Amino acid sequence: MYKNDTVYYPQDEMTTVLLPVTSGCSYNKCIFCSMYKGDKYCEVPFWDIEMQLLNGYAYTEKVFLTGADPMSIGFDKMKRLLDMIHRYLPYCACVASYASIKSISDYSVEELSILHDAGLRLLYIGFETGRDDILKLMNKGHTVNEAIEQAKKLNQASLSFNSILMYGIAGRSQSVDNAVATAKMINQFITNKVITMNLTVFHGTELNNMVNRGDFIPPARNERLIEIRTLLENLQSKQPMIFDTTHPTNIIKIKGTLPQDKEKLVDEVTNRLSKSFKI
Ligand code: SF4
Fold first, then answer.
1. For the CA atoms of the chain, what is the radius of gyration?
2. Whose CA is closest to atom 6 on ligand 1?
3. 209 Cβ partners below 8 Å, 6+ apart?
4. 134 vs 20, 169, 225, 267, CA distance in Å?
5. Tally: H helices and E strands in the chain
């Protein structure tokens, strides 16, 4: 039941008012993910959401919708939800949420635009990688072309989003290739921010079984640093884009705006690498 769930939210939303919308993950098949493994997917009833809003602070300026993918509730319910938030929290200027490529594909550009106008202003989307073979291996449920297509729809609808990437995900000796392909994907659209996560192999996941069988070998630390640097070097943002590796899983914590901070960020990774070995 959602009231006992562990609540996940992005680091940037640490001080944002949280509003539960879904419980569990409607997909729940990514082999690296342990977050919702034993949880049954369900939607939080509207009467319960309304009760929480009714008891909320009327001057709230930002709300984060919790659940693995609240966009999975579909357009009609999402619009109703945003209208309800606006009714109870009239000063709320930004509703943010996790979303998946799969759930966005169910929305038209027009619908995304209506949701934007109704207050949905920021999505956090797990793109993970720009390689189809790795998306398939990880059972992510979308392809690179689908990701690009959905991202472009969001751009057309003026709905901002942050792109979550996972380095290390391609395995040993694949990091440079993965970084180049991932940057190539990101370069196709405009994203507010690139947030990196470091691949962590969690107990109880299929990925962990693969590692134990020797079917997947995670890259070493230095290879992962080279992956971050290669990603940075290959990103060509059309508009200012934040590059952020400060999530706790990361092996280096750097943050800056591309393109102007690119050289500085690359140097920081190179310095970290040079402390590990001569390059
Ligand atoms: S990574 Fe996201 S979409 Fe995949 S199983 Fe975990 S919560 Fe669900």
1. 19
2. 33
3. none
4. 31, 7, 19, 28
5. 10, 10
Domain-wise residue ranges, the chain: 2-276
Q: Closest residue (by CA) to atom 5 of ligand 1? A: 28
Contact 242, 194 (CB under 8 A): yes
Q: For residue 92, what pLDDT band results from cuts at 50, 70 and 90?
A: very high
What's the CATH class of domain 2-276?
alpha beta
Atom of ligand 1 at shortest range from CA of 33:
6
**What is the percentage of the chain residues whose pLDDT exceeds 90?**
93
pLDDT at 239 exceeding the cut of 80: yes
Distance (angstroms) between ligand 1 centre and the Cα of 88 equals: 30
Residues within 6 Å of ligand 1 by CB: 25, 27-28, 30, 33, 35-36, 68, 100, 126
Would you call 12 helix, strand, or coil by DSSP? helix
Q: Are 243 and 261 in contact (CB under 8 A)?
A: yes
Supply 269's token pair: 């990774």
Residues 6+ apart with CB under 8 A from 82: 95, 115, 118, 119, 120
3-state secondary structure of 24: coil
